[in-house]
Write a structure and sequence with these properties.
CATH class of chain B: Mainly Alpha
Distance between the termini of chain B: 52 Å
Number of helices of chain A: 44
Largest sheet of chain A: 3 strands, antiparallel
Helix content of chain B: 55-70%
Structural class of chain A: mainly alpha
Number of helices of chain B: 5
Number of strands of chain B: 0
Strand order of the largest sheet of chain A: 3-4-5
Largest sheet of chain B: none
Number of strands of chain A: 5
Shape of chain A: elongated
Oligomer: heterodimer
Strand content of chain B: under 5%
Chain lengths: ~1150, ~120
Amino acid sequence: MLSPLYLFAVALGLAFLFGLFDRIGRAISMTLLYAALAFFVLISGSWLVHLLGGAAPVLIQTAGFPPPFAIALRMGVEEALVTLFANVVALLGAVYLGRRLKSGPVTGIVLYLLVVMGVNGMVLTRDLFNLFVFIEITSISTYAVLGMQRSGASLASGFKYLMAGGIASTLFLIGVIYIYRVSGTLYLDGIIQSGTLFAGGVGFLAFFLLLASILVELKPFPANGWALDVYQSGHTGLAALIAAVNSAGFLFAFYKLLPVLPEAALPTLVGLGLFTFFFANLIGLRHTDARRILGFSSVAQVGLVAAAAAFGRLTGFGAVVTFVVVGGLFLNHLVAKAGLFWTAGILGPKGSQASAADSPAAKLPAPFIAAFGLLIVALVGLPPFPGFWAKWQLVVRLVSGGNWVWLGMLLSGSLFEAIYLLRWFGTTVAVRRAASAAADAEEVTRTVPAFVPAPKGVELDEAESEGSPAKCGALILGAILLSATGAVMTLLSGEFALVQMLPVAAAVALFVLDLLPGKLKGVLSLAIIAAAAYLIVPSLSGLRWFFELIFLVGGGVILISSLSRKGRQVGYYPLATMLVLSLGSIAAAVTALDFIFAWELMAVSSYLLVLRGDRTGKPSLRYAAFSIGGAFLLMTGFAAAAAALPAAVREIPAIVAAAGGQAVAWLSSFVSGLSLSGLTAGISIDGLLGIGNAAGSALSGAAASAGAAPGLVLAAMILLALGFLMKAGAIGVHVWLPGAYGEAEDDASALISSVMSKAALFAIMLFVGLLGLRAAGVTGGPLANGALSAAASLPEIVAWVGILTALFGAMMAVFQEDVKYLMAYSSMSQIGYMIAGVGMMTHLGWTASMFMAVNHLLYKGMLFLAIAGVIQRTGTRSMYRMGGLIKKMPISYISALIGIIALSGVPPLPGFGGKWLFYTALLEKGWYLMAGVAFFTSTVAFLYLFRFIYTVFLGQLKTRFQQLKEASVWLLIPQVLLIIGTIAIAAFPSIVLTPIMNIVSGFFPATVRWENYTVISTLGYWNGSLVMLVTMGVFITPLVWLLLVSRKPQVVKQFNMVYAGERPDRPETTHYAHNFFQPYSRALGFLVKPVFVRFWNAVNEGVHSIAKAFDNLYSGNGQTYALHILLYVVIVYFIMRGSL
Amino acid sequence: MTIVTVLGFVLLGIGLWGMLTRKNLIKIVIGFSIMDTGVHLIIVSVGYLWGRTAPIIDKAVPQAQAASRVIDPIPSALVLTAIVIGLAVTALMLSYAVQMHKTRGSLSIDDFRLPARKQGEA
């Protein structure tokens, strides 16, 4: 193996020789820089392979003496891994900075190389004073390279950095000399082994000063104002270097020092790290400047990694867990942060704030945006990236350790971070779309050339910031590197079953094929979904089978509509396919981790789909915030369930064994002695719910009383219920729903509203219904306890939430002008019924709920697709601008008509059956008040449905719509399929009801039975086929009669009407369809006041003003920042001293 | 605790006070320099042992008696490195001060609150 010492020899040698080579030509210097960095990568990479292959870590002696007589460097797996990533990112960063390094003085090249060398040294050295030297080499080179920029802001921030660094070095030096005095050595392992450092008070103070110096360099809140200014005003290439590569060195130094500390000091460090994570992200919310938010995010992430490292030391993570948690968070930050700083640079000094006209975002290629999105998704901690696996493992451990405060800081900080990062991404995408739309429009009309204002007030010298291919290339390579790391973590976490990986694999494949024409990609997507359905559906049974059919078949049918799209549709098919397949994975999930993984994939893909709509800045952000917040509740809930019901936990090794373990076997061929023990995050869902297997049945017996904690079971159930109700858009947490359903592209709305909404229903059935059933089952046993009986009554609360959701959803639908918002609220209302059905916890209730789910899939698909066609043709979403479309779009009209008949629950269509089952179930249960509310809600539904069909299809045809054509055939095909399905179910309800009832019989004793075509309940009976026949008869007989008797029907012409002689102030008020239900609004409008929107806005405001208060700490004055550092060190000293 | 150590800490305090209170960039640099000198004194004082000689093994100090007759050479070696590094940092700070004066025509640190001030209004 190449000795790592060559790394220093090469860097220092070249540093002196660069001046000489540069005389020959800059090309030579640049080549040498790249070669040197590639050589660094080679050294650390080859060591990593060597060490993973089973070699023991090596202690490299310098000067021919063993330590402590000479400096020793250590090369172990951790060192190799960290230096490898740091060097790769440094190499990519050099590519990003290429043009700048090329045009500036040669010192820039020298300094860049020295920074990287210094970081490598910080990672490798085991000598404390040598650590100081490498810190100073890194820092001084960084100061110097920052000082090469001549702008006021970057110089000012560089000076603040120098002051902070100066104070940190002073602390380090005093610490190091007293450590030497107390322990007689500076060799780290010697200090750790002797363990006598803390015998007297001086030793602790000395070590604390040294640690404090590293802490300050890790930029803790609130002693980090200088760092934020550097991140904001330094060149983005340098900010990336500092945030990623330099931080790698300091974090590793921190990691190295942890073993010296006694265990009692560690909680302070965990707390400090999470404190920084929480507050940095909180304040980040207030900012919109891309670099400033990246600065806050960097500070936060470094704090998180430090906290995770200290927590790992505290609770004794094994090697694999350390890799997944600490390594995962760290590598995620390293690559994503560097990449995002480059992104900010490519997007220009104004970042996302640029107005549409002069934004470079419009000119950037799709892979750039994809890489941007990938890095954001990774940094937010969504799957399949390392941050996700790390966060999951960390959450499980925090919950099982009962560290609720830390958990709260972790999750709320993560949520804040997600919000401001996604806001940046969303704005950029919106700007890009607007700019390209403007460019298209310009091309068509050939009007005056667009005025492009010169970038003014650009003090930061990055005026030439448009994305060169090299810059974008560096970014894309970074994204690929991160994805590969994510893939390894995915394998380690046991998520390699086909069904779990399919969504990601399909999305990647379709994205690679993005150059193909749109229609071809559409067909490919459908083929993939069909193949998935063919493979997965037969392997499932019960609820999973039922919902898998809804997701894959329903999703596939609705996706046919996307073939009406024109052009290449970059990015649409990968996302839509990923959404449908991730829904499939949710239904097929075996462990809680599978479930969360698929759930978050669904959240990501649907968020990105919503983001593709036209006016989706705020709605998509709101959707993302609720999705991610909900997912955090779920993570915590699952972790709590696992901690409360220990019998249900399955270790990942067991899953690996069950799945054949090929992936792990493959990994093992690189890593000798790979053991996954310790990754105990695979909570079997069936075990948790007590379905079938031994783990479940054991719970009601001895195992339960031994391990289960009733309070924790209740907490788990509440968290899970809240998380899923958020996704269902239940009243109170519904504020994201109308925007997300309404503002997505029209056919995507159909997919999201009719198919995706069932995911929440499925989850509520499993984790509220069945878990509640289980809690109820345990109540009578040795665990008879208040908490458990509360858990058992949770479903009733959920049922009330469902009914109220149904009521208020319908009320709000009544007053919408926008047809898509009307349908969105209608979906909310219908899902409310289904949730209430689940909450009844009876055979009939569940049957009704599942039957309504099938119906809703069919009719809401029809309605949304019919609307998609109408919007496509009329170009508006306001209903009063439509009207009279029945003659122009007859098939869409029929589809809409059947849709509303099915929805309203009028015979003969299956909506009636659903309602009948639902009311019967409510009455059977004895919940009369709820039944009353449900009846009232159904009446309200008539109002909005009538408004919809009347104002869109009936009434007056607008003159400008005289030439309108029927919707695209690709939109009509799925509608016809759905109509056929609806009619078939109407005529023969048993084809759907029998399997549903059989499934439900597994959980509840049946109270209804079949006799031929009749369902008989305790309260009455329903023969769907007969109702169909009777209704047909009732309608057809008068029709035939009328045709026979009316010889000369007068056809009413369009303008055959009477004016009332009034002149309205606003044109739309002449339209009867505008403000259609104004009288009702006067009577009942108070019920639909946006109280919850106001509530969440107030929460938002509150959080922002707290953030503002803390943000005021950052005065911009270097001396204030220096004072913060001093105070921070003093306070932390007393906290840590006190904890010992 | 020798008088040199005490003096070192006093200098450190003076330097730090200067860094935190003086508005002039050059004075801040001088403050840093004083603080750094204080640290160097502390390091040297820790290694120095009263009544011993320089750690050079020759005729005056035979190898066998070295351990009992010379001072600890490690802190002296460390302080040399620390001095060099302190020099580099001081030089950089001064060159920053010069460049900052060129951009704004001022040496007052109050004129260099960018970019946080600008951001605060957002």
